[in-house]
Amino acid sequence: EDPAWDILNGFQQRTLPQGITDRCTLVMNAIDTGHPSLSLAALLWRVVNEPLFETENFSEEEMEIVHSTLEALQRKTSQWRYVIFENRLDPYIRNGRFTERPFFMYSKAGPRRGDVERHYLTADLNTERWGTADDTSGVAAEYLLEHPCAERMNLTFISSSPVEIRRYSGSSSESLSSDRFGMYTVGIFDILETNEDAVFLFEISSTNEVEVPYSHESQQDDESNPVSAMIEVSIEEGRKYTYIELLRLACLQQRDQVFAIAFQMLSNSFMHDGYSTESLPGDIIKNEALLWPAVREISGSTAGSSIITERFIITEELRCRALRKDIDFWMF
Prior knowledge:
The chain has helices spanning 5-13, 20-30, 38-54, 60-94, 115-130, 140-146, 243-253, 255-267, 292-299, 316-330, and strands at 155-159, 165-169, 172-175, 184-186, 191-194, 198-206, 218-220, 228-235, 241-242, 269-272, 275-281, 284-286, 306-307, 309-313. By secondary structure, the chain is of the alpha+beta class.
């Protein structure tokens, strides 16, 4: 009887409506659930945003409904985060963000299918969702302000020209301010608009280092190389862009460059204690989410097919890594 049941059941049975307004209606009903959950919040965000990956042919009325749904979901998610922090997160972080080891680590039987992937995805999820702060003695609200929801998904960029950037929240808007380095930040719930045509510059970069759970010794594959690239995205005056629309636009305008970086990321893997964890592609540290549309296309492709040019041939291993990375993105 819980309001969230329809959307949970529809997602599991793959019977969610195709229309974006019907999806928004389901989400607006589901946020009245009696079971606050950040995993549920991530799923609701997915239900609203997934169609935006596929097409841009939505009417102005439909996009207004999307914008208002995102604004309501952002408010509800903030409320849930505060409740969860006070009840569970503060002791969890003070205990070192410990992720319970799966049963196979204590059993001679070895891992069951999916155990290894689930373990590393969960450990990675905890760090991405909660941040890396060690001191949580302050007030809960201060911590949540310092670490907004899905902060690892934030995009940072600079504008090639001095334009006014507005950020919308429901019917209100505010001017988006840059930091002292001229960098702007856009989060998963943000809706941006400029007062004139502009070019946003997104830097995608990586490092040779990788975080390894539980102090395992690690080494990168010999073919692993750092990434550094600048993605230019042209923005139209007066048009409102959601987070997913920015990702889609970047991939449309700089497709060759984005796919080249995505293939490099998915091809880089790491060694842990002598065995390869295929579920862990090389990490992109900055603006990794710009690769998301490419990762989704690769995960849905057929092994042996090519994308862009014959240089990029999809193997089954690469496709599986892309699928796991797509899951990782959806979980924030």
